[in-house]
Write a structure and sequence with these properties.
alpha/beta; 10 helices; 3-stranded antiparallel beta sheet; 328 residues; disordered C terminus; 5-stranded mixed beta sheet; binds zinc ion
Length: 328
């Protein structure tokens, strides 16, 4: 803006009434919030720019759209921006995204998050699960002594009708998949979540369809290193998985009163994690089972990222490519 115009603008401000001043304040805050979120996303993308369609890195700048820089891939000729292919691909209300990151960092409830960002409750719900989709799907590789144990959550279809309209999840109907699977102490009202954690703090979580060897293998197979020592509770399903993969297996028979074997083998770290997870989850008063993976990923991200209280942490986590990756 020209200096002379800016002087006029400043003089005009003196003539604003109270309501107009407030409105102007909100507009300024919104404008600077948007540029903050967009700058962060654009810079992060540009630092390691690659085509989300084919992975090529030879890109051309291709103007702007929806407030974001566009690129064109020299290999596949498709155009895209920093958010293409991410959970935040529909760029609306970007000005509030960093504030939503604050809400996630603080573990706010839906209503508090909505008030914190000045958005509707349904928007708060939709954003929670958009922001958490990528963190929930991120997988670390576990090595050394790997403790593994399940914890249980009450099965809940909460919200499956109320939120249907605003929910982008493809899995819409309450479902009962897998309930007939092996039920070691598992009732239809309980959903098992497997947590596995190594001594360096690398952690994975998985909502299990059952407690059989297949479910355990599906959850642990892709993430446990071949030279790891698996240290689970005494369940046979883990033994089957470990034997099948040729992984050393040191079960802890907690039910028989064993806590530590050979000084090194125990599941106290993973059980302490269960305790922190459950304590933190209490504020949500029970969560819909189909969203449980997102809450597990939320808690895991809080524990694993270097700056869990920084709003940018959550905005960048939301747009991370989903893959097996080390979170460090
Ligand atoms: Zn391409």
């Amino acid at each position: 803006m020209r200096e002379a115009d800016f002087e006029v603008l400043l003089r005009l401000i003196e003539r604003l009434d109270g309501e107009q001043r407030k409105a102007l304040g909100r507009a300024l805050a919104s404008a600077s919030g948007e540029s903050g979120a967009v700058r962060l996303l654009e810079e992060t993308f540009a630092a390691a720019a690659r085509c989300p369609h084919c992975g090529a890195t030879e890109l051309q700048r291709w103007g702007h759209a929806s407030g974001l820089r566009r690129y064109r891939c020299k290999a596949c000729h498709k155009t895209f921006n920093a958010l293409t292919g991410t959970s935040l691909a529909r760029p609306r209300k970007k000005a509030c995204w960093l504030r939503y990151g604050e809400a996630l960092a603080a573990g706010m409830t839906l209503a508090k998050s909505a008030a914190h960002c000045g958005v509707h409750l349904t928007t708060s719900f939709r954003w929670r699960h958009r922001f958490l989709r990528a963190p929930a799907a991120t997988r670390e590789v576990l090595g050394g002594v790997v403790e593994a144990d399940e914890t249980f959550f009450r099965r809940s279809h909460k919200g499956s009708h109320r939120w249907r309209r605003g929910d982008a999840s493809p899995e819409r109907r309450p479902h009962r998949r897998g309930e007939r699977a092996s039920r070691r102490g598992l009732s239809a009202e309980q959903v098992p979540a497997l947590i596995a954690r190594d001594r360096a703090g690398h952690t994975i979580d998985a909502v299990l369809p059952g407690l059989g060897a297949d479910a355990i293998a599906a959850a642990l197979g892709p993430v446990v290193a071949g030279d790891a020592v698996l240290c689970p509770d005494g369940a046979k399903a883990y033994a089957a998985f470990a034997t099948g993969r040729g992984i050393r297996h040191e079960p802890i028979d907690v039910a028989a009163g064993v806590r530590v074997r050979d000084g090194a083998f125990h599941i106290q770290n993973v059980n302490a994690y269960h305790g922190r997870l459950k304590g933190w989850m209490r504020r949500f008063n029970g969560v819909a089972t189909r969203y449980l993976p997102n809450y597990l990923g939320w808690r895991r991200t809080l524990e694993r990222v270097p700056e869990p209280s920084a709003s940018k942490t959550w905005l960048l986590a939301a747009v991370r490519p989903i893959s097996t990756a080390n979170a460090n």
